[in-house]
Amino acid sequence: MSASSETAEQYWSWTKPEITTLNQPFWDGLRRHELLIQKCKKCGEYQWYARANCIHCGSREVEWVRSSGKGKIYSYTVIHMVIGNSPLFNRELPFAVALVELDEGPRMYAMMTDCELSDVKIDVPVEVVFRDVAPDLTIPMFRPVKSQGASRVF
Amino acid sequence: MVLMKGRVAIVGYGETPYTRPRAERGQPRLTAEEYASWAMELALSSAGLSKSDFDGQGLGVTGTIYPHAEIWSAEVAQNLGITPKMIIRADQGGAAAASLLIQGALAINAGLVDMFLCIAADAPLSMPTASASGARTWRYENDYMLPFGMMGPNSIFAFIMKRHMHQYGTKREHTGKIAITQRYHASMNPVAYLKAPMTMDEYLSSRVIADPIHLLDCCIPVNGGLAFILASKEKAKQITDKPVYLLGFGECHNYTHGSKNRPDITYLGIVKAAPEAYKMAGIEPKDASFVEIYDDYTIAVLMQLEDLGFCKKGEGGKFVEQTDISIHGQLPVNTHGGQLSAGQAGIGGGCSHIVEAARQLREEAGQRQVKDAKIGVVTAIGGLAYGVNLVHNAVMVFGKEV
């Protein structure tokens, strides 16, 4: 790490997404602590991540709607090494990332927080929490509905 | 069904040694251009052809992690000094070389050209400066995965492996047997990067990267160059007395087993591609003398053994436990050591399985030659999808005879 404070700040910064006109509503929603996913006006199906059309029926009439933020863990991993991502994540090693199956249908990758690693299991019911990780960036994480512990991540 | 059984053959191939490249160990630091040139020379020599034979023929080029250029095939044609009639460039990641093979074979079968020279070279470890960056592989990774704490392919495959273990009771001892057997094969492969024998203890205790993925579950990134030459059946017979015929192929892209939102991620599109390839070739899985399976991770091999029909879904662990998958056994798997041990030459890595199948069927595999090899099955997968597994899936069947 460089001694320059500016470089240090960049070095320890959260990995930023590219915010486009397509995905901006999602990121804006997170700033308000709302988890938005897309819903098709034609067939009523949901989807995540941001697309320009419904992946189910092909309609371009997709709108952003608020997810319940509830779901269950479909699969997960415990990260032990930071590879290809910001060194900032070294602070929390080891930490769990889950593939959460939202009640509306789509699955979403997200970090697990407010629990012990041993609480992270397949089929465990979870709910969304929001972390303001930078002045202009909020990231959704999930915690078990039950068995919440003190091990906060970021 | 496209009737292309035996219409096109591989008549030559090339594969350079793989390096990391470590100057302190005397390993050369070459560029992708140098690897492309070297691979071409080896393939031409193997086929007894010269570069000028490809003026007016086909040229196939995979992309590269480094250097990254969108208009890459134009650069490769200029660098090699070839004037092809047609060029194809594939961007299917690990399945890019398979795509070149299939598209090239289609062009030959259509009568557009008699031959295709396919080049798969990459030097992801030869970035000249620390600030240089390789190709951005998936945009959705930057936007929807990295900010969420994901760590690239290792973490994606960790989810797949965890789910496979959960649904079917698969154990790390099962994937360990794959890693250990492939290392044994690599010990007999002169171009392989990792040749030292591996024990089960070493496998099980190797460093955890993204649980349940450990270091020895992952392929080893290297620099390298690969190439193969395709020719029509008629042309092939003029070029060589050992043509390796393409008997069948199948592809499936963006497959989800179940609903699009909630697929079973333990199934790959290989489950759809394999029956097509077998049908065209007129074979069943039991006819395979060996199988070269795209192996970015150990669990990918195990899952594909299931999807290829060597055992039922979920029984890959038991199958690997009960089957000798070495060159001496009932079903030799990744006889070159695969990307797990020989090395993954960036985007070119998926070409090694095709080249090894050709080598085995020409009986040119030396110490690791599979006895009486008649039919080889080869897979390719590429493009890690969000929340699923691999977007691109291809299966090819090769034979000594039609």
Structure description:
The complex is a heterodimer of chains A (154) and B (402). Chain A is globular. Chain A is mainly beta. Chain B is of the alpha/beta class. In chain B, 33% of the residues lie in helices and 18% in strands. In chain B, the strands form two sheets. Chain B has a nine-stranded mixed β-sheet, sandwiched between helices. Chain B has a two-stranded antiparallel ribbon with strand order 5-6. The longest helix of chain B has 17 residues. The mean pLDDT of chain B is 96. Chains A and B meet through strand 2, strand 4, strand 5, strand 6 and strand 8 of A and helix 4, helix 5 and strand 5 of B. Strand 4 of chain A pairs antiparallel with strand 5 of chain B.
- Report the radius of gyration of chain A as a whole number of Å: 17 Å
Helix content of chain B: 25-40%
**Quaternary assembly:** heterodimer
Major sheet: arrangement of strands of chain B:
3-2-4-7-1-8-11-10-9
Biggest sheet architecture of chain A: 5 strands, antiparallel
First-last Cα distance of chain B: 17 Å
Instruction: Give the SSE order of chain B as H and E letters.
Output: EHEHEHEHHHHEEEHEHEHHHHEE
Portion of residues within helices of chain A: under 10%
User: How many H/I helical runs of chain B?
Assistant: 13
* Strand elements of chain B, count: 11
Strand adjacency order, main sheet of chain A? 6-5-4-7-8
Please state the average pLDDT score of chain B: 96
- Low-confidence spans of chain B: pLDDT under 50, at least 5 residues? none
- Work out the number of β strands of chain A: 8
For the largest interface, the chains and their residue counts are: A-B, 43 and 35 residues
Helices and strands in order:
The complex is a heterodimer of chains A (154) and B (402).
Chain A: H1 5-11, H2 24-31, E1 36-40, E2 46-47, E3 62-66, E4 70-79, E5 95-102, E6 107-111, E7 125-134, E8 137-144
Antiparallel strand pairs in A: 1-2, 1-3, 4-5, 4-7, 5-6, 7-8
Chain B: E1 8-15, H1 32-47, E2 58-62, H2 72-80, E3 86-90, H3 96-109, E4 115-122, H4 139-144, H5 152-168, H6 172-186, H7 200-204, E5 208-211, E6 213-214, E7 224-232, H8 233-239, E8 244-253, H9 270-281, E9 290-292, H10 298-307, H11 316-322, H12 338-341, H13 351-361, E10 375-384, E11 390-399
Parallel strand pairs in B: 2-3, 2-4, 9-10
Antiparallel strand pairs in B: 1-7, 1-8, 4-7, 5-6, 8-11, 10-11
